[in-house]
Amino acid sequence: MKTLLIVHASQSGRTYMMAEGARRGAAQFADEVEVRFLPALAATIADLLACDGLLLATPENFGYMAGAMKDFLDRTYYPAQGKVEGLPYGVLISAGNDGTGALTAIERIARGYPLKAVVEPLICRGDLTAAALLASEEMGLTLAGGLSCGIF
After folding, report:
1. Under a CB-based contact definition with an 8 Å cutoff, are residues 63 and 104 in contact?
2. Is 134's pLDDT higher than 90?
């Protein structure tokens, strides 16, 4: 059984809804992939080391990722060195602006672990739409399906 870790941070609820969509998509592989769904402040290095794939879901705050997401990455960065190289990951961002600041920061940090991006990042700008929720669900489905099939 593979494990997909979805780490999320949300204040308004929009990012949570995107992360929940990803969890619904991943649940289609429930017989092969366990989904761990944790708030960023609750996720630990043990959770990261135990997963086979990672999905980070964050709002854009002041052109950056949420502080809770940065905290998760800060707490796990050094303990994960040499232990998660090539771990497949994806990113969901709920943005009031363009989301690129948050994405750039996450990608820079991910290169340091180093993690491997296996899906295109999803940035929902402005109001959360049905299309964004569907795309979130598809991202979860893709990550879980890839883990299940051994593609990543």
Report:
1. no
2. yes
Are 3 and 50 in contact by the 8 Å Cβ rule? The answer is yes
In a domain, 152, yes or no: no
Return the DSSP state at 28.
G
Distance, in Å, from the CA atom of 111 to the CA atom of 33, rounded to the nearest integer, reads 25
- Residue pointed to by tokens 């299940």: 148
- Cα separation, 80 vs 46, in Å, equals 9
Gap between the Cα atoms of 114 and 141, Å rounded? 23
Tens digits of per-residue pLDDT, 70-82? 999 999 999 999 9
In this structure, what CATH number is given to the domain that contains residue 130? Answer: 3.40.50.360
The number of domains in the chain is 1
Q: Which two tokens stand for residue 66?
A: 């949420």
Dig out the tokens for 1 from the structure.
């059984």
Q: Locate 69 and state its tokens.
A: 């997401």
Name the residue with tokens 């959360």: 128
